[in-house]
What does this fold into?
Amino acid sequence: MMWLARLARLVEVAAPPVLPRSARAETTLGRLLGDVRHGRFERTLSALSTVGAVITAAEIFSEHDGASFGNKMMWWPVLVVPTMVPAGISAVCSRRAAHTVLPVASAAVVANGLQGTYLHWRGILQKPGGSANLAYNVEMGPPMFAPLLASLVGAMGLLASLLRREGEPDTHGGR
It folds into this structure.
């Protein structure tokens, strides 16, 4: 029973104090929500979608090159995903580009990622044995959910284009 008392004392010392509501607003989550409310997150999300597009485009090229671009459709994401890079950079620099160029490029990337997901699933089913050999084909075929990574990068760009920028009027009445 002595060990139970020691454990209770350790937990009591290690437990964080309960902060009052005003102090909780100063936490990281509170600051992040404040940044979104005041329009400071739009540029950050545009920049993150640009970095994500660079990494994703490099990964797509590497994987599709490893497959020797066996299907001509493999070239589409290599051409479409990098369009997010200039769109994201211009969205960071320009309020107008954030609401015009970025959503167009982002929507194209989302659509291409969904198309790629369909093509990858179809490719898995076209492997020898089809759905009867599904466990093997999922492992050895194209990655099932990799194209959704590109869609996620595009969705980040779409979200960035929907957010308001710092200095724009609040159209939601302070909510």
Remarks:
- Residues 41-66 form the longest helix (26 residues).
- The mean pLDDT is 85.
